[in-house]
Input
Amino acid sequence: MSARRRVYRYGGPAELRPDAGTGPDVNRVGSAAEFEAWAAARPAAELDEPFTYVVGTDGALRLAPRRSEHVACAGGDAVRSAGEITFARRAGHWTVTDVSNHSTGYCPDVTSWPAVAEALERAGLAHPGGFTHAVVFRRCPACQERGIVHEGEFVCVFCGGELPEAWNVEPPGYGRLP
Output
């Protein structure tokens, strides 16, 4: 099964998981017209800031204010990717200037980019062709903590244990879409 079909479930603090029907100002963007309407409703200063995003299991882009939790943006559901994203209007068209997979609640692998690209293309957004800031997440086999690999050093910041080169945040076999 391809990596782009993987889903990531939330693994952060339980108190951040929203109750059904609650959460931030989340906007589902599934087309260029929906993105244009969403952008037109935002104050110009807000559009200069990065936004929290998730790509739902339905492949749709969901956007929320930057300081929103990814799990709230996703309504507590699993996602195909998550991170932060920045937009700019250039030559009369919206484009993505920066995009990451930085979500410590979901810890999406860098291989989740194709899901992001598909969602952005459906929303009519030009994009950089990959994460402009790719974050490498791993679970330490020794202490089981989830963390970020810094500067290519696959060493756990919590216990000093060696981290695997392959993404391992979720157990094998979890989170595959049919």
Summary: The two ends are 9 Å apart (CA to CA).
